[in-house]
Specification:
homotetramer, TIM Barrel, DAHP_syn_2 (chains A, B, C, D), Alpha-Beta Plaits, four-stranded antiparallel sheet, about 350 residues, 15 strands, alpha/beta
């Protein structure tokens, strides 16, 4: 890490900086420029150390040199990780296609949707049982009943299932039913929840928060990894932007950026990123072309009766067309859409 | 609510829209323009209804007419609410001055800081015992030991205390020690947590999330209010912006905006909003001038040894000077800084 | 357009609204809801009318129904436009590949770069002669000498050329040398300049401003179209975002969005969007996959001696590899990279 | 400036970096850490040098140490500048109160508005004659006729006048009539225009662009200063934000930030920042409390017939009340609202 001292820092301040740095067990290397004095520091760059140093009188700026995440970084782990979701691989050339309704719906409908997406080539079924809703008066999900139904429908169609968990007290319950635990964008920095899914053995789908930098996202993955769960798949699902024409701002450049900084797989979610069905196919293909390890799309056979987020779902026939295009594109890129597992647990 | 249909919506689509609207128990009022057909809808405007309607084929846009929050809205409750924090009033002309270190520190230091802020005129002591940190390797707070110390120090100086709660499982514990429960920016949309503090009887300090609109903030207040806890104080603490010159973007216009939309008190936190001690006094005064019902400032007597967020703390002597200016400004605005309670619980 | 009146608007206010609307030559259609009165308005929706109406006492909100642009809208012109840049087609299935250095460089180097990009499959050469620089002390371009050199090099390699114009007084001069006039992001709303290029006969490459919505971009295209120049190609080149990890935020969803709203071609510029050579190939492919009608990439054979923006240029060999991938992807999408014209003017 | 080399930079790359740095006439100072090699550079930090160095193979990051502006920086000019607008002082404790309609209106109305704002205590009259409008179909201003009228009305009420100039070809004409030239937000980085107003002798009101950082704003001031015109007043008028509840996002923290980095005066414009009359008074007071050297407010006596921007104007009686509050607040802060000049030119 590098300290830039304020213009006009006194000798006394410089001495104090050196002394403080050394009292933290670090080595300081002084360099006096014409206008500014610089102190190079060798050693630990954890957040608490950076903060302490930035608060020393006379310090203008602290420039970290190393990334603050370790387990998530590609430097520490050069090979791309492959996450196995009950037999479906994501990462390292294996493409995951996650599809399904926003909320778990009635049983018949779930079977119809699952059948259609499996036929189209999707390999993981999604559906929310515990829904984080901006309004306390909106539908909050079916709870355990929804988990059970999702599991049954997944089994019937040989599709592993992913569903969101929103409360640390529910991680154990959700992990009983689901093959993969989703952390939603609003909970990306819910550290109590991250610690719980980190302690679980289930693969985790970690969605990027709406105001999270890529660095923030990787730090949250680090929480999960540091608890001993290495099976983290990241997801770009749109961040906050100023143009009301789309629901969120789809940051497709985050895909290659994450892949340079980290070994973890990253998928895209054009449904939440755009909120507009007519933009989803183009943005799904863009994500794959950018190198994404998978694509998450909401699918519903009658959006106007969906329990939530109907307006952003594709119809099964639209999804089938898109899935065909995604397979061709994956092939062009030298990747494979992962096949369904023989049987799911 | 108003539906704008797509250009070229067919008669069949229009009929289906009317039918769907009526099947939801609402009344539709059709209006055919030269270029577009409009449907006015009278009745419930909850989120699920808006979503369902937006997903009907042929609908281009849904424009809600009423705010989606009810209990939080000023329409429903024209008089400004006053929240009482163990004897210290916030709102309706009463100014709360919250000050203290980011994390609860060692006992001696806590007493020194508490003494200095009380002497300066602050009326609530803050300090974190459970810290949400972006790094899993950073100091996570002292836990219950921190709560106990904060309580003791508050009692010794007749200062009610506020501290953050980050996990729904900890609400009961924190409420035993604290006069006010803080929900941090990263947890603003942690709905499980909001429901728990809503079920508690303690006043809640609800900080605005970094990507939250004012509408989002009021919807989160609605979660708490709808659980039966009316004692919510909102806090503008900076949102995500594009200029790295400050830590966050201080949205001071949110203060008068919230006050028009809602009866709830709103305070400002220039420490987190700017992240720069040299900007805090100007921004604290700006918040008060904009009409804020209080100001939250981090104070530490030796920022370079602070357990967290040292770089953004004011020194006690800087805070004393600022508090003096805030008192003069409050007076000019016809407001009063709330006095300390005779005794705290 | 639809007016939503304030809750509690008086009969007198309602009458005044109707009267004002009619005095503007428009027809008003009143609809009284339980909580709000709505006025539907039939007729002109130009900006000045919207503003005037929004300022009438008692009006809470004005919701436009029609897009504010006419010539640029797809409703008015359903077929996709094809812009011909001296023989190279952009739009309607024809892909433009624009490449070259940020600034026009010395003659030898320009020839080397032009030769390499033509061999790779690019069909338009770029290079800046008048550079808008954030610093008054930075290199400002070679001026007319640069224009002449760009023209000569383009001719030598049968490549039409595009270059930026930054000053309305220079449009005529630049149009003498260039096949296409670029309006840079910082000048997107320089209306004096838009009017001048609108009066010119040259095709225009209009880059999206860093804080421009898609609607803003289309309004600026409307300026040019309304002056009688129909040859406008739009360009997504990144908007302002909060994550410093990339130079700008690449809004790839703007590509399909523009294509739904407008008939004008739109290309992408991953060089400016990301500012990082290592992200450019992935983002170029993402743009094409999203449906872009072309890709603009900066290429330099020795970035460290580039007169400007060296850090974001691809090397010729990197560009050649990318161009190959772009051609394969275009083919998969049923599009063709436009061939070089037989001869350029 | 400091270079951080990539992890794994080779000896050959390090040698090449040193050689390139020295070939630019700079001195390099090498420092090898455990994980990264750092090169401190002493000498010129202009933009072109930074870019060239960032493009050298093996360089991961360049950290500038000095601000890129010189004439605008407070380091170079510690005392706060006072700008004299034909007898009205702005800066250094002198408060400018600029008020008037968005566009120059008919003569009678201009006199009525001017009279009312002068009586309220405003000291500069504003009014647009050349209007930058997002729509080519909107009212574009009265042109020279508007300039003449503004001048006459200003003279009649002893108010200096400020008006926007949007085209470098018009600077001379506008400077004949106006006491102060306004550069609007959309033209902040119109460098041709900045150079022309820099060559003029008139004071300049430079508004911050909607996506401009404070650093960008100061670089644009540097353009004007470097042309020999030292009379620059900056203006915070709201930047692009994600919450549609206000027109722009009022960045009040930019006021103290600019005052630390620069000696130039800075005023605020809550009219454009919020776009909502009901928020203007609170935000005007917030700006003053944050230390602003002046406040710019749009005033119109019948907003619904305003030629432009009616919805964000205060009525004269609202402005009079606000002006009274601003005077009291200025007094509390030890500042003075500048009196009207005896006569204006």
């Amino acid at each position: 890490m590098i300290l830039i001292l304020k213009g006009g820092a006194t000798e006394q301040q410089i001495d104090h900086v050196i002394q403080r740095v050394e009292s933290l067990g670090l080595k300081a290397h002084l360099s006096r420029g014409t206008f500014r004095t610089i102190v190079g520091i060798i050693g630990d760059e954890s957040e608490i150390v950076v903060e302490s140093i930035r608060a020393i009188p006379g310090v203008a700026k602290v420039v970290p040199v190393l990334p603050p995440y370790k387990l998530a970084s590609r430097e520490a782990h050069p090979e791309s990780s492959v996450v196995d979701v009950s037999g479906v691989k994501i990462g390292g050339g294996h493409v995951g296609l996650i599809a399904g309704p926003c909320s778990v719906e009635e049983e018949d409908r779930m079977h119809r949707i699952a059948e259609s997406i499996a036929a189209a080539g999707a390999n993981i079924l999604r559906g929310g049982a515990f829904k984080p809703r901006t309004s306390p008066y909106a539908f909050q999900g079916l709870g355990e009943e929804g988990l059970r139904r999702l599991r049954d429908v997944g089994n019937a169609h040989s599709l592993p299932v992913v569903t969101e968990v929103t409360d640390p007290r529910l991680v154990e319950l959700v992990a009983e039913y689901a093959d993969m635990l989703q952390i939603g964008a609003r909970n990306m920095q819910n550290f109590a929840l991250l610690n719980e899914v980190g302690a679980s053995k289930r693969p985790v789908l970690l969605k990027r928060g709406m105001s999270a930098t890529v660095n923030d996202l990787l730090m949250c993955a680090e929480y999960i990894l540091s608890q001993g769960n290495p099976n983290v798949v990241l997801c770009e699902r749109g961040i906050k932007g100023f143009d009301p024409a789309t629901r969120n701002l789809y940051d497709v450049a985050a895909v290659p950026l994450v892949q340079q900084l980290s070994h973890l797989p990253i998928i895209v979610d054009p449904s939440h990123a755009t909120g507009k069905p007519e933009l989803i196919p183009a943005c799904a293909l863009a994500g794959l072309a950018a190198g994404a390890d998978g694509v998450h799309v909401e699918v519903h056979d009658c959006p106007e009766v969906a329990k939530s987020d109907g307006p952003q779902a594709l119809l099964p026939e639209q999804y089938a067309e898109l899935a065909q295009q995604m397979k061709s594109l994956a092939e062009l890129l030298g990747k494979t859409v992962s096949p369904l597992p023989e049987t799911t647990a």
